[in-house]
Design a protein that fits this description.
The chain is an alpha+beta fold. It folds into 3 domains: about 70 residues, Class II Histocompatibility Antigen, M Beta Chain, Chain B, domain 1 (Roll); about 90 residues, Sandwich (Immunoglobulin-like), CATH 2.60.40; about 30 residues. It is built from 2 helices and 13 strands; from the N terminus they run ββββαβββββββββα. The longest helix is centred in the C-terminal third of the chain and has 31 residues. The N and C termini lie far apart (about 70 Å). About 15% of the residues are buried.
């Protein structure tokens, strides 16, 4: 069998919206590093990843690339404005818990926002219509193979019955938002579910047996 194919990509973007610069290194669909332009350093996506080798693409070289990107953007914008339409993607959001939810037990909600282009969206949370600002964390933009971006937002929660969590995605200059909801459900314990299913199967079997006896008696008559 042929070995699996993998993709290592380094994507630099620049734009008039914030963030004005972004640079990420991905392996397949996973982000490994992102470049902190104000700090001029590579930052690992996960703390257990090793540090970026300084001899590989020094920060000074990346800053020159970023300057070139901005110069090209301004020049191409002047040439294309009014001639080519602006490209925009409609974000798609999905909210799910990190672990199987149990009412009253701490968990973490993830809002995964896909099909982002350009990479300039705001992600916010609400609980029962009230904004949440504490303990919310966001990842940096991760480029995807279809020339778009994905971004994650995390919210620690302790779900209770009746809660309605909302992830809201807005884009600068747009009059619309993308909204995704998550409502915790009280799962039926597996033992109760198994007992109910066994009882229903037994009742169905008895009913079919009685129906068969009735049909036999009717046929003899």
């Amino acid at each position: 069998a042929e070995p699996p194919l993998h993709t290592l990509a380094e994507v630099l973007f620049c734009q008039p919206a914030m963030p004005s610069l972004g640079l990420a290194l991905t392996f397949d669909a996973d982000q490994l590093f992102w470049f902190d332009f104000p700090g001029s350093r590579w930052t690992p996506r996960l703390p257990e990843l090793p540090s970026w080798p300084l001899a590989l693409e020094p920060p000074a070289q990346l800053l020159r690339d970023a300057t070139l990107c901005q110069d090209l953007r301004r020049h191409l914008t002047r040439l294309a404005t009014g001639i080519l339409p602006e490209s925009k993607g409609v974000p798609m959001a999905n909210v799910f818990p990190v672990r199987p939810p149990v009412l009253g037990e701490p968990n973490t909600l993830v809002c995964m926002v896909e099909n982002i282009f350009p990479p300039a969206v705001e992600i916010s949370w609400q609980l029962d219509g009230v904004p949440i600002t504490q303990e919310v964390t966001h990842t940096h933009y991760t480029p995807t193979a279809d020339l778009a971006f994905v971004r994650f937002s995390y919210l620690p929660v302790t779900p209770a019955a009746g809660d309605v969590y909302t992830c809201i995605i807005t884009r600068e200059g747009d009059n619309s938002s993308v909204i995704a909801y998550w409502v915790p459900q009280n799962p039926v314990p597996s033992e109760v579910l198994e007992t109910a299913l066994c009882g229903a199967a037994m009742a169905l079997g008895i009913l079919l047996a009685l129906l068969g006896i009735a049909m036999i008696l009717a046929a003899r008559r």
